[in-house]
Amino acid sequence: MKKLLAILMVMLIVLSGCAKGSGDNGRNRDSIDNNNVNRVVNGNDLSGKDYIDLLKNYVVRYKNKENTTDNKEFDEFLDQIFIEGMEADYLSMHYTVIDYKSYGIEKPELTVGSVEYADDPDISDYVDQIERLQSFDYDSLSYRQQYDYEVLEYSLLETLAGTMYSKYDQLFTGGTDTFSNIITNFDEFIFYDKEMVDDYMVLLADVDRYIEDCYTYTAKQAENGLYMTDYSIDYALDYVDGYCSKVDDNTLITSFNNRIEEADFLSAEEKEAYKAQNEKIVKEEIIPVYSKAFDEFEKYYGKATVDTNRLNNIDKDYAELVFILNSSNNIPVEDMLEDAKERMDDYIALFNTAVEDQDNINDFYSVYYGTIEPLGGSNEDILEFLANNYSKNYPDVGKINYNISYLDASSASDSIIAYYMPSPLDDLSQNVIRVNPNNTGDDYLNSYSTIAHEGIPGHLYEHVHYYLTEPHNFRSTQSFIGYTEGFACYSQTNAFDYLPVSKGCKDIMFLQDFGSYILVAIIDMGVNCFNWSEDDVAQYMNEAGYNGDYAAELMEDVIDRVGVFNRYGIGFLNFRALHDYATDALGDKFDEVAFNTAITNNGPLPFNILKEEVNEYIYGE
Prior knowledge:
The protein has 621 residues and is mainly α.
């Protein structure tokens, strides 16, 4: 997230309010016909709005824990889904598996990808997949397979809806960040053998073609009235300027050379030849096509305004879909907004009570300035500390292997503080956390939160823990971004429990993180779906205890990265809501480790399906 959010996260807020719990489970098994809900009929004839309605009305089925016998044909179908997904995109395959041949995968076409503007996109492949899925008898599936069924069904509905509105997706905003994402994909590319070095060269030579296609796509959007905002243009060009300013020491040259030197399967002569080939492509193709952005984008200056690029003014249905997809939550966006505002109020009293005690404030500043171990140490020290303490509130999975490294400052996007590179399925030890040196500072609490978010007990832990349960491989092709980012936010605040400070100090730290994430998610929805003005944003910020002087910049940011903040804010809110729901229902019987086991055992899920998993934990059904 951008530096602005980091600024907000260190601003102490003084709020007021009270906490609330959740209602009963309201379960009625007899009302659901498992094989006749969420049906897609004549899918190729349905509209984008039809698929949004299927998502909004999605019915979660109940799972049969007693059925431990897998349906062989269904697993074979999932095998096909996994292979089809891997064979559709080389880079996805490369980061998912090392030995692709052992999975029966044929090497995909060596291309970076494709992008094409379409008013009437082809959805037939996805329709075929969901029709094949829904031909299976749900009740014949094992407990694990029933989760797999709903994961695939819900994911395909998301994909079908998103594809129908793909002409609105902008490629060069801070939310999509095409320029930096491409660099990241090549910077992180691991060479396992000579074949992969050759593949890398073919892919790298395809980048200029792909970027040209993205420019053409963006121009076609402009022809149809959808322009980049000046804020988005400045963001993209700032990145390009920083990246292209380095030539001989360009990150795609230096990082490649370092990796090639470590490739013990190459001779010295081969290494030098590859270095020369790589340098030629970077200097003669990559840097020029990136630099072309100045000519491509400058003609769009002044064409878009805040009002023209609010999603609600582009397409109301698309606006709702963006927030459904980013939050992994299928409730109406107006309900998301009201729930977020209520939750902001609900946690206020806890904060006010905490800051009344000067000892809590003193503890907070000890954390902030890094005088409490491990906060004054390196990122490596922090992650080791977290690895030694996570089992206090998460299921213990033993030693987790990881490595921390640092991005090249010239190619690191300002929107990134750090990120986690998941390990491939066939080697769970290859976990990398990359830290952006441009966004490091003297805020030791923020550093601790960031490493917990990306590492343990956040993304790194969640990934390794789930794949140690040996799920079906197809799950690696499914993504629910609101779950994964929400879980990491939820986990970074759980990591406050490991610090030797008062409960009141932990409450202050929690409210600081929670409040900042929820604040920007609220503004995201208010601006993009409900046409909040700058005055509306400033008023809400001031009422919430933040500085309304940031209103204009926040408005531009949430339009540039529309929906992105909901991944964090609404995802975080939903995990906390489930936690409150379970503690209210179980009282003294609530167990933190058991709860965190329940919300991770079946991997990333949309929150409506995850709620059923929490009900299983609470009611034992």
